[in-house]
């Protein structure tokens, strides 16, 4: 147990809590009652891998949410194409972006700690990569395919023929649209 779990910080906008739980007001509960979804205080030493995986799933959701916020923030940011902006606005945006990136880094560290802890707690469940993905050049067991019934073969042929017909129709429509666009562009060029 070399890696310690990060403590959840209870506060708005902190990385330890998923967004759904951040907006909830904190209520004081009697010591005998624990919050739903949280293990009792005595069980903190004996956290199950399933609970760690759930925390990891919430962390991944937080990472995705933060990443989407960064992309939305950068999309909304105007490029400095010769436009003079105030230095204060630039510093404010830069500070917000730096804070988002710092929070994202903390979430990735937390996820790594959770992963290492789960691997540590479940050594018997670890599979080698060879069991998951066959390597190039390795003999793979052939998959036996049972012959299809004549009705299935007939239906497949009918579907393939319909697809070929639809493809021909689509090709004709695309050619007509291409010719129409060509004519429109030629007319617009002649008007100038």
UniProtKB/TrEMBL annotation:
InterPro entries given for it? Mediator_Med30_met
| Extent of Low complexity compositional bias | 19-32
Report the GO molecular function annotations. Answer: transcription coregulator activity
For this chain's UniProt record, which GO biological process terms are given?
positive regulation of DNA-templated transcription
Q: Which Pfam families match?
A: Med30
Please provide the record's keywords in A-Z order. Answer: Activator, Coiled coil, Nucleus, Transcription, Transcription regulation
Source taxon at top rank: Eukaryota
Tell where it localizes: Nucleus
GO cellular component annotations, sorted alphabetically? mediator complex
Q: Where is this region: Disordered?
A: 1-41
Query: Which residues are in coiled coils?
Result: 153-180
The similarity annotation says: Belongs to the Mediator complex subunit 30 family.
Note the PANTHER family from the entry. Answer: MEDIATOR OF RNA POLYMERASE II TRANSCRIPTION SUBUNIT 30
Question: Its function?
Answer: Component of the Mediator complex, a coactivator involved in the regulated transcription of nearly all RNA polymerase II-dependent genes. Mediator functions as a bridge to convey information from gene-specific regulatory proteins to the basal RNA polymerase II transcription machinery. Mediator is recruited to promoters by direct interactions with regulatory proteins and serves as a scaffold for the assembly of a functional preinitiation complex with RNA polymerase II and the general transcription factors.
Give the protein name, as stated in the record: Mediator of RNA polymerase II transcription subunit 30
Q: Which gene encodes it?
A: zgc:114119
């Amino acid at each position: 147990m070399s890696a310690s779990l990060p403590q959840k910080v209870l506060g708005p906008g902190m990385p330890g809590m998923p967004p759904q739980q951040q907006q909830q007001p904190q209520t004081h509960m009697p010591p005998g009652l624990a919050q739903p979804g949280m293990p009792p205080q005595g069980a903190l030493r004996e956290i199950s891998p399933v609970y760690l995986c759930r925390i990891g799933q919430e962390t991944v959701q937080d990472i995705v949410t933060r990443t989407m916020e960064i992309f939305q923030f950068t999309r909304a940011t105007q490029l400095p194409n010769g436009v003079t902006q105030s230095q204060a606005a630039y510093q404010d945006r830069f500070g917000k972006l730096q804070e988002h990136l710092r929070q994202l880094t903390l979430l990735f560290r937390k996820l790594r700690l959770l992963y290492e802890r789960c691997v540590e707690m479940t050594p018997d469940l670890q599979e080698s990569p060879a069991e998951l993905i066959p390597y190039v050049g390795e003999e793979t067991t052939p998959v036996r395919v049972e012959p299809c019934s004549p009705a299935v073969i007939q239906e497949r042929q009918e579907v393939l023929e319909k697809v070929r017909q639809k493809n021909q129709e689509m090709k004709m429509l695309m050619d007509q649209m291409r010719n129409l666009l060509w004519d429109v562009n030629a007319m617009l060029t002649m008007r100038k």
